[in-house]
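Give me the fold.
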Amino acid sequence: MSDKATLNVEGKSYEFDVFTGSENEKCIDTQNLRAETGYITMDPGFGNTGSCYSSITYVDGAKGILRYRGYPIEELAEKAIFIETAYLVLYGELPNKEQLKSFSDRLKEHAPLHTNLEHHFSGFPKSAPPMAILSAMLNLISCFHPEVLEVPTTGEQFDRTASLLLSKVRTIAAFAYRMAAGKPINHPNPNLTYCGNFLHMMFSDPYQEYKVTPIIDKALNLFLILHADHEQNCSTSTVRVVGSSRANLFSSVAAGVCALWGPLHGGANAAVITMLEDIKKSGRPLTYYLEKAKDKDDPFRLMGFGHRVYKNFDPRSLILKKRVHDVLEALKVQDSLLDIALELEDATLSDDYFVSRNLYPNVDFYSGILLRAIGIPLNMYTVMFAIGRMPGWIANWKEMHDHNLRISRPRQIYTGKTTRHFIPMAER
C-alpha cells in the first residue's frame, strides 16, 4: 500500500487504499465501497475490474508481454517442454531433474481411465461435441475418485489430484475422438512422452501404430505451452467463480471447459479454419473479404485478428508465426487452406487499415493452422486449448483457496419495474 484515492460522492469524501503490484500495476481497493458509500462500480465485462491478487501470470497488453511466474513466454517456448511449464505454473518454480521425473511418473501413473468410465463414452451420440463430452467426463471422474472431492491445496493429495487431472484430460479427449470416429480406443502408453502419448491415443490403429516425429512432438509441446495460462480470462475467471463456492477442483475445471467452448474464447481457433474454408469455397478474391471486414455495417469479421488485451502483437502469435512456417516446411504440407491463410496474413500485415487498428493475426489464427498441419480434426481444436490451459486453471483454483477468498458475488443495478401487485386472472 503506497497511496490513497479520494472519491467525492454527494458532498462527502471517501478514501480508498491504492495498491501497486510487482510490475507497477496500480489498483484502487474498492472492497468496502458499497458499505461506506452505498454505491457500486459499473463495469460490464469486467474490463477494468480486478478480481484477485495473483502471482501466476503477468500480461502487459500495451507492450505485448506475457510471463508465467516471471519467465518470459519466449524463453519457455524455446527451451521448455509442456510438463516442465505445467510444473512451473502449478508450483511457482521450474522443476529440477528429480522433481520433473517424479511429476512425469505421476502423469504416466494416472493416464489410464477406470474401466467403467470407458463405457460411458458409448452413451454419447457420435455427433456429440467433444467439449461437451470433456466437461461431462471431467465431472464424472470425481465419482471414481471420491477422495478428490475435498482436496487440500498443498501436500501429496493435491499433487496427486493435479497430476490426475493433467493426465486424464488427454485420455478423455482422445477417447472422445475415437468413439465419435467409430474406432477402437487406444490405451495410454507409459513409454511415450506427454504429447506423444496423446497423439498415440488419438491416431494409432490396430494395423499401424502412430509414429510421433520430433517436429510434431515439439510443435504440440509449443501449442500447449503457449496456452498454459493467460491471466483472468473468461474460462479462468469461471474456474475461480465456481471454485469460490468451495466446489471441488473437477467441477471447477469442468465449468472452465464450458466457458472456453464459446467462439469468442477457445472456439476462435476453429472459427479461423471455418472462415478459411468459406473463403476457399466461395472462390472470391481475398480483397473482397478484406473490404467486408472494413465495412462497419457488414457483420463479417476476420477471425483470428486482434485481441481483447493486446494492443500490440500478441507475443504468442509472434512465436507461432515462425514455428508454423517451420513446421509446414519440415512436414512438406501441401494444403490450399493453409496457402489462403498465409496470403491473408500477408494482406493484412501490409494493409494500413488493419495495422493502424492493431488488428494483427493473433494466437488463434496461427494455432488453428498449426493444429491443421499436425492433423488434429477441427472439432478437437478447442479441446486442445483446454488440455493446454489445464495447468492455469488448477493453479488459479489453488491460489484462490490459498488466499481464502470470499465467494464471488457481483452486484447489479436493477432497471426493471418497481413494486407491482398481483392481478387476478379475471382482471388481466
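The beta strands are 3-9, 12-20, 26-28, 57-60, 65-68, 71-72.
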